[in-house]
Amino acid sequence: MKWNGLIANYSRFLPVSENTPDVSLHEGHTPLLFLENLSNLLDIELHVKVEGANPTGSFKDRGMALAVAKAKEEGSNTIVCASTGNTSASAAAYAARAGMKCVVVIPDGKIAQGKLAQAVMYGADVYSIKGNFDEALQLVKKLSEELPITLVNSLNPYRIEGQKTAAFEVCDQLGKAPDVLALPVGNAGNITAYWKGFKEYNQEFQTGLPEMRGFEAEGAAAIVKDSIIPDPETIATAIRIGNPTSWKQAVRATEESKGKIDFVTDEEMIKAYQLLARREGIFAEPASSASLAGIIKHLQQKELEKGKRVVAVLTGNGLKDPVTATEHANVKVQSLADYRQLAASFEGVSV
Ligand code: F0G
């Protein structure tokens, strides 16, 4: 099958017409992998949706493909966003593709190196502020209200429309919706988008509905604690957000689906991050591993029954954050003294 991106493939579910320009980087169509080792370990049927396989390495490309195409269609020539890293990388790439200007505002020192490298490489104007994501978002919201520029954070409804296609793909790949869909929650756009996607596909193709289980980082768990967190903190910088935009929609998604929003600790995320890499060969970024960490927590707390078919969304690629990876790999690079030392590594290996 020839894949030309999600707008071409799912156009009948999207607000597009022949006037919508093609700015696709052939995003979407990401692998849904069955994890045999972890399924055996956890006694569930565990699949992961590998969104790090998108063109800029995160799920953001789904929403950005549509948001940028629509901005261009509507005559805009500049897009703006606040970001913990992935949105800015994706916005900058699609702006470059569309021949548009891109301006991004990020929290100083709190975005992974690879994401920053992407934004500058794609040619965005990048500003950092001393504050956090929530403060950056206030700034760009104000700017987009006063100037003729397009905001491409998930307040932009086209972002949610594009991102809902991930739910379509899960149903297509699995034959129907899973029992449980687990994903990390930051600004809460993605959980809103998946739920919308599952409902639309179910209406059209009777694919069923999953329980939606979203996981915030403990230090940024505004929805779980039902209170804005003024100084969110977590190792998972992607979801270091204390006042999620789609808060209400996320709560509605979990209520309607009989799911739950919970939190996971940094320690639990790091453990899941290591398990994915070492047991399954999948390198996802720390925030992404909140989905698996949450599933493990719910199994331990008996909030999830054995044998369930679970899809955990891995939202971003581990390569974006090499510093966190090398700090938590538990393997150190050793400097090699001589041939004998190297040969000693192979002790017990026979020919
Ligand atoms: N996982 C990753 C890797 C992310 O980058 C984000 C959000 C999320 C999960 C949470 O998704 O916000 O829809 O609930 N990153 C945004 C950004 C905030 O600026 O890149 P959400």
Task: Please summarize what this structure is.
The chain is α/β, with parallel strands linked by helices and 351 residues long. The protein contains 15 helices and ten strands. Its cofactor is pyridoxal 5'-phosphate.
Secondary-structure map with pairings?
Elements: H1 6-9, E1 32-34, H2 36-42, E2 45-50, H3 60-73, E3 78-82, H4 86-98, E4 101-107, H5 113-121, E5 125-129, H6 133-146, E6 150-151, H7 157-163, H8 165-174, E7 180-184, H9 189-205, E8 211-217, H10 222-225, H11 247-256, E9 260-264, H12 266-280, H13 290-300, E10 309-314, H14 322-328, H15 339-344
Parallel strand pairs: 2-10, 3-4, 3-6, 4-5, 7-8, 7-10, 8-9
Antiparallel strand pairs: 1-2
Helix pairs in contact: 3-4, 3-7, 4-5, 7-9, 8-9, 9-11, 12-13
GO molecular function, one term: threonine synthase activity
Keywords: Amino-acid biosynthesis, Lyase, Pyridoxal phosphate, Threonine biosynthesis
InterPro entries: Rhodanese-like_dom (IPR001763), Ser/Thr_Dehydratase (IPR050147), Ser/Thr_deHydtase_PyrdxlP-BS (IPR000634), Thr_synthase-like (IPR004450), Thr_Synthase_bac/arc (IPR026260), TrpB-like_PALP (IPR001926), TrpB-like_PALP_sf (IPR036052)
